[in-house]
Amino acid sequence: MKKLMNRVDDFLSESLAGFATAHDDVITLHSEPVFVRRRQLTQGKVALVSGGGSGHEPLHAGFVGYGMLDAACPGQVFTSPTPDQMVSAAEAADTGAGVLFVVKNYSGDVMNFEMAAEMCDVHNATVLVNDDVAVENSSHTTGRRGVAGTVIVEKVVGSLAETGANLAECKAFGDRVAECTASMGVAFTSCIVPAAGTTTFRLGDDEMEVGVGIHGEPGRRRAKLASADAISSELLETIVADLEPPRGTELLVLVNGLGGTPLGELYLLFNSARQWLERRGLRVARSLIGNVTTSLEMAGASLTLCTLDDEIRRHWDTPVRTPALRWGI
Amino acid sequence: MKKLMNRVDDFLSESLAGFATAHDDVITLHSEPVFVRRRQLTQGKVALVSGGGSGHEPLHAGFVGYGMLDAACPGQVFTSPTPDQMVSAAEAADTGAGVLFVVKNYSGDVMNFEMAAEMCDVHNATVLVNDDVAVENSSHTTGRRGVAGTVIVEKVVGSLAETGANLAECKAFGDRVAECTASMGVAFTSCIVPAAGTTTFRLGDDEMEVGVGIHGEPGRRRAKLASADAISSELLETIVADLEPPRGTELLVLVNGLGGTPLGELYLLFNSARQWLERRGLRVARSLIGNVTTSLEMAGASLTLCTLDDEIRRHWDTPVRTPALRWGI
Fold first, then answer.
1. How far apart are CA B114 and CA B98, in angstroms?
2. Helix axes A107-119, A83-93, angle to 10 degrees
3. I need a surface site. Which of A265, A269, B51, B253 has the fewest CB within 10 A?
4. Cβ <8 Å between B296 and A231
């Protein structure tokens, strides 16, 4: 295992310490229990709180800041944060309008966020993100997994919350955006969890895992390596079959790197995806290309489509200022 | 070789096509010869033009836009762009105040930019960046290599150019910033050049290359894998011996991922570097952590220090709007 680290047991705390120092204009790091909070809260605004296992950086802590999340709870690598982290984060983020939990659909996360929702002394609601169309159930999940589409939900619901919308409105918008967002990924290599020290799964030199999960969970099939065009076609066929966008639909396309794939390849995959979509009469109106929901050093990428309407497009375009996503401010 | 691509020969053109579509609000892509130009030029502003081999994305094309470059010339992977690309880019970017070429110190780049400087019909000057303190000469270089410090030069000189400074002032500032910027990196794995199809060099499972170049050139020594603290200490000892910053100096610290290393590890390395610097009485006043000058999918990272004064700090903080770096706008 080759990683920039000292002791395995200190991996998360040292990484978070670096993150907190680098971005102390935007966020603060709380310890015991661990959560990251927006430095400046807005009174009376619905607070968005998310969290999940670490190893998916910049998700979620990298999206805490104006226009997105108010707090995020990082668990150990690929391990759900605990209910006490969530309760503390929610209570520290609430300014009177309640808390909206944004939860990726993994059994551990769902259970702990449900427990936190009951325990915490704050009016709250939950948006569940389950955008991964690769498999219906998996080793970590009942129902579809939540993956990179979560970033879109956090961006646009975060924007709505900044306008002063109430908790029910934010929850309804989040549910709607989650429903019109779908993702699927492919892995070329496994990641290595620091505490395990070895690869999560093994792939031959000419193999890829189609529909891989962001923890290295199995996808739909193990296949021979294919061209970018063939990969984008397979992923998009599945995504489009799920979303069923009519011809002429405007899309937000997210090409997400899983951690070990160079930016040049992600742009190439975007080019391939755009051509495929245009051949189907679909329009790429917005795009985001980069590593936003990673799986440690895994090589590979995922494609996410979100069908846009005026409201979603408007909230995608609003200013945002977080460690990982920043524009217009 | 596992890459998101179709035919090797189309790798660069398809990647650039994706890049150009994704960022057509900021840049335009010219073909025959290939260069990327800012969509909107400012009349009478000194134009900054850079370029170099591809495979280091987002460098350089990702830094074309308001506050940084006016144009960039991408060569084939790890291959200098040609003089005709540079001449065309310079002539397309010039609006009357001349062109400043920002050139990383590699023999091919230097020769071609010199030829372009002579051939082109535009008043011009050149800033040479040679921030890599690992080795004095290398397989690709006479003198020190230019690496991630180039991004700092492009940011702050780009900012000065926006104020209406003339070509001589921009050149002098660039030379000064390049002199107070130093870098050194470490690799855990080799990259694979698409046209080669195999790793550039081989490392054992417990080895790292200390002082590696961004094309996989040899560094100072092949060593056993070490902790993040030991690595940051070795890199910073060398960098600080070069810059000789007095106690109390304010620094800009850039932790640059080489392409295959997760963000969480880069933050951990930053944490380690910050502690080392503070023990030496140096102050981390600004930081940037991410993949800004990569070496395809190489795992590893580099550290760059730039000693700040009021002028450099002010120009670091100004708004920027490029595909890869964006704030305040």
1. 15
2. 50
3. B253
4. no
ipTM of this complex prediction, to 2 decimal places: 0.98
**Residue A204 CA to its chain's centroid (Å):** 28
Question: In this complex, do B260 and A299 lie within 8 Å of one another by their Cβ atoms?
Answer: yes
Query: How many C-beta atoms surround the C-beta of residue A221 within 10 A?
Result: 11
Task: Say whether both A40 and A141 belong to one domain.
Answer: yes
Residue with tokens 């219906």: A136
In a domain, B141, yes or no: yes
Concerning whether A60 is annotated as a catalytic residue, the answer is: no
The tokens describing B207, both together, are 């080895």
Residues 6+ apart with CB under 8 A from A161: A45, A46, A47, A48, A100, A170
Q: Is the peptide bond before A60 cis (omega within 30 degrees of 0)?
A: yes
- One domain, residues A109 and A139: yes
Percent of residues, chain A, with pLDDT higher than 90: 97
Q: What are phi and psi of A181, to 5 degrees?
A: -125, 130
| Distances, alpha carbon A306 to alpha carbons A10, A183, A251, A282, in Å | 37, 9, 6, 12
Domain containing A186: what range?
181-309
Distance CA B266, CA A1 (A): 16
Cα dist. A119→A91, B159, B213 in Å? Answer: 11, 51, 53
Interchain CB contact of B17 with A (< 8 Å):
yes
Q: Are residues B159 and B241 in the same domain?
A: no
Tokens standing for A169?
Answer: 């409105």
How far is the CA of A19 from the CAs of A22, A26, A60, B211, in angstroms?
A: 5, 11, 12, 25
| A262, A265, A267, A269 alpha-carbon torsion, rounded to 10° | -140
Rounded to whole angstroms, how far apart are CA atoms B282 and B274? 9
Q: What is the largest CA-CA distance in chain B?
A: 55
Domain count, chain B: 2
User: Do A303 and A211 fall into the same domain?
Assistant: yes
In whole angstroms, give the CA distance from residue A18 to residue A59: 16
User: What's the pLDDT tens digit per position in A77-120?
Assistant: 999 999 999 999 999 999 999 999 999 999 999 999 999 999 99
Catalytic residue list contains B56: yes
C-alpha distance from residue B128 to each of A249, B60, B100, B102, B105 (Å): 48, 15, 10, 6, 6
Task: State the best of A268, A286, A298 to mutate against chain B, taking most chain B CBs within 10 Å.
Answer: A268
Closest residue of A to B294, CA-based?
A262
Mark which of B131, B162, B179 sits at the end of a domain: B179
Residues of chain A with C-beta less than 8 angstroms from the C-beta of B12: 264
| pLDDT tens-place values along chain B, 329 residues long | 999 999 999 999 999 999 999 999 999 999 999 999 999 999 999 999 999 999 999 999 999 999 999 999 999 999 999 999 999 999 999 999 999 999 999 999 999 999 999 999 999 999 999 999 998 887 778 899 999 999 999 999 999 999 999 999 999 999 999 999 999 999 999 999 999 999 999 999 999 999 999 999 999 999 999 999 999 999 999 999 999 999 999 999 999 999 999 999 999 999 999 999 999 999 999 999 999 999 999 999 999 999 999 999 999 999 999 999 999 87
Report A:208-237 residues touching B (Cβ under 8 A): 208, 225, 227-229, 231
Residues on chain A touching B268 (C-beta within 8 angstroms): 4-6, 11, 14-15, 18
